[in-house]
Amino acid sequence: QLQLVESGGGLVQPGGSLRLSCAASGFTLDYHAIGWFRQAPGKEREEVSCISRRGGSTNYADSVKGRFTISRDNAKNTVYLQMNSLKPEDTAVYYCAARAYYCSGSPNDYDYWGQGTQVTVSS
Questions:
Q1: Angstrom distances, CA of residue 105 to CA of 26, 37, 43, 49
Q2: What pLDDT, in 10s, does the model give residues 71-113?
């Protein structure tokens, strides 16, 4: 069964850090670009970041540039999102998603999705 599983979410104070993980099972991520998306209550799902299949290209939403870093370890079949200097507006459910080869900013272009992990930034 093809599956993506996110982990690492939680409650953190403003200015804190979290590292999210996206682990794949049932298929290899070697040929897939991985995107991180988030969805806050009442808002549309938005792209946060994406990394190409070999990690040579990364994209970030303007709202997270300089604070978030995406990386991948294909040997572990896992992609990470390091989130620093977190703000209350980063509160959302974070999803990872996979598509063949290249990044896309549209959630509709992704073939596989995880179940999501909640990130709450609050004092």
A1: 25, 9, 16, 9
A2: 999 899 999 999 999 999 999 999 999 999 899 999 999 999 9
Instruction: Write b or e for each residue in 29-65: b if 16 or more Cβ atoms lie within 10 A of its Cβ, otherwise e.
Output: beebbbbbbbeeeeeebebbbbbbbeeeeebbbeebe
3-class secondary structure for 43-83? Answer: CCCEEEEEECCCCCCEEECCCCCCCEEEEEECCCCEEEEEE
d(CA 83, CA 102): 23
Listed residue (22, 16, 32, 1) closest to 117, CA to CA: 22
Contacts of 75 (CB under 8 A, 6+ apart): none
Write the pLDDT tens digit of every residue in 12-28. Answer: 999 999 999 999 988 88
